[in-house]
Amino acid sequence: MSDDTLLSVHDLTKHYPITEGLLAREVGRVRAVDGISFDIRRGETLGLVGESGCGKSTAARSLLRLEPPTDGEIRFDGEIVGNQTDDERKRFRRRTGIIFQDPTSSFDPRLSIGESVAEPLALHGLRDHDRRRSLVETMLAEVGLSADDYDRYPHELSGGQKQRVALARALVSNPELLVADEPVSALDVSVEAEILALIERLQTTFGLSILLISHDMSVVRDVCDRVAVMYLGEIVERGPTEAVFADPQHPYTRALLASMTTPDPTRRGERAELSGTVPDPADPPPGCRFHTRCPAVIQPPDYDFDQQVWRGILDLRIALRNRTLDTERLRTRLVTEGDAEHADEISGAELRTAIRAAHDIPDELHDANAEQVLSAALAEIVAGELATAEERLNESFATICCREQPALEETEAGHRAACHLHDVGGESSTAESVLSGQQNG
Amino acid sequence: MNEPLLSVNDLRTHFETSDGTVLAVDGVSFAVERGETVCLVGESGSGKTVACESITKLLPMPPGKLVGGRIDFDGRDLTDCSPGQLSDVRGKRIAHVFQNPQGALDPVYSVGAQLVEAIRLHRDVSKRAARERGIELLDRVGIPEAAVRFDEYPHEFSGGMKQRVVIAMALAAEPDLLIADEPTTALDVTTQASILDLLNDIKAERDMAILFVTHDLGVVAEMADRVVVMYAGKVMERGDVHDVFETPAHPYTQALLRCLPGRGERRETIGGGFPNPTDPPTGCRFHPRCPHAVEDCIGGEQPALEPANNNETHRAACVFYDEDHDTEVVQESAADRAAQPSEQSKQQTDGGHATEGGNR
Ligand code: SF4
Ligand code: SF4
Hints:
Helices cover 39% and strands 18% of the residues of chain A. Chain A is an alpha/beta fold and 441 residues long.
């Protein structure tokens, strides 16, 4: 941690217990944020990016202690935040500010703009009414509104103007850290550009550090110095914005970048798709949490697959693990689609073909050894021995991605990523080829 | 040339509010050919959604009111149709998909039951056949294990999957036109990408036309055959998607494109605020914010849509495209935009009261 570090987050964790029954016995935990670490330097903007449900907003709320974290250490200006006295907590609140996606919900509609902005000042003990008013008026001017707006009401303002008021209120107590949670997602394109420009100007004026939370990679690229990519409660890649965008090292980051649309019709169809959805954070996948969707997931060393076919086989295995492969249903469906009258008439071979087709696996793998394993497993599935089939696939087609959780480590690109493709000694030599293959895949 | 599938002519939809009459759509014309995707693009207040919802009168009326214009759909003027006839068109020929799939699904029925209903509304088939068809449709829109999920309830589906279900329901009627209003705006980027691909695939497969409403120029570039740019209730520009993105003709379109993040360049802003919808500017509605505005822009009506670059199909509603003005003043190409910061960047602003006015 260097001297100019303002905020340092270490192993931040936020779990929500899932309880059952009258005694509220804990039966599980939603691992919304599961051990993330990062620093923010003075005057710097850090972007926290990821799909909805990845935990980015929860991370922000718990580091500001708007809800207590489950675990982890937060240092603000060198001091541990957490076991503070009331006074210290108040001071911490004053030195941080937050704005949200929907500014409307954060205002009391009965309060005038000026009263809303003045609230934090009153809370922090500034009783002199005139002084409060003059501070608020100055602040309104800073965010591009005017002193006359003091007496207007939220409903008289456009979305962009409300976001300006939200900024004024967040900054009126002169904080050092601003947390901006999706500040422009609800705004129009032209207003978005204005608000981002305003945030940048305010950052210079007030020497702010900013934690910007967004699902929008283009916003992050525009305003952040560094970026941390979150997936299912964890940070999977972290580094200077330019480096991460120019040379992403985690397959998830690559997928996010590849899903972005570009305002250029000549580059149509260059997007790549990412299959599946974010798994349930109450039951994250073992090993690398991204392995259920990762297009670059590492192949078992002794076999040779086309990458897409390997992805399909792994999907089959995951379906077995999650008990979502239902052979009875498949039989019924084959009856509906085909000529057979009754589920019993569906032959084992037909069912095996259907299972392959459902997972984009060809009728025969080109690697004979792999084909042997797969057909044996399919035979077991058809015979109803799902657990045996799962075990067979697990053992024969073992991959480190399902077994070990990758650590967030320095890559050859110079920034950090949590992916086994970068493991030293192991498959690291293939990282570049596999990752670049993903983009065309 | 064949008649277009949908042709909207001089459409005017107004709203009575306590602040006065909102001229939400104020003389808008565009057409959609069979099998093509037309994107209606604009910011909030442009009138794009109201224009779309006027077509099949989905719009609550009152407070909305169709005060003028014709809407010809497959040879029939929809403005003349009775509510019964219209609901027939809505069920069978024109389907809608909205931003929020939640609203289109009934939480108390399984998605299968809702699909079966939609299918049987369209075709007189047995329940069993409708069920088969429903599963097929779910499978087609990319719901894994469609047969299993057929009997599940809307809340058991993720946002992206719900939107797929809604698309399946829309397809049940085998519509000629799908009106999709910001269908991917509420979704994650990765989900958005796959839904856009899905829409493109089924459009090609079924020769179905899509009227796609969006504020997102990235999505427009991905989807559109042709583009209609709206601002403050008026069409500012329309044309082939490549023409509009490569040589945006109207200063508003040019400004909007400059608001987007470029590769490493700073975004620019438009400056000024959205006009008051009950009292829009005279002349060109963009004139208070336009860097090229001249005396002729200020009075009278919105300039007519004139061909840009001698291209009949690419038109802009700006005085610089009429015979009395030098077009070069406002012309720019995508290359110019990338090569040098425009004149406007000098007056780059982060807006504020003085600039982002309006009372909405
Ligand atoms: S560790 Fe494996 S599954 Fe995880 S991102 Fe890397 S390659 Fe993909
Ligand atoms: S008509 Fe005038 S104000 Fe309108 S876009 Fe053209 S130059 Fe600008």
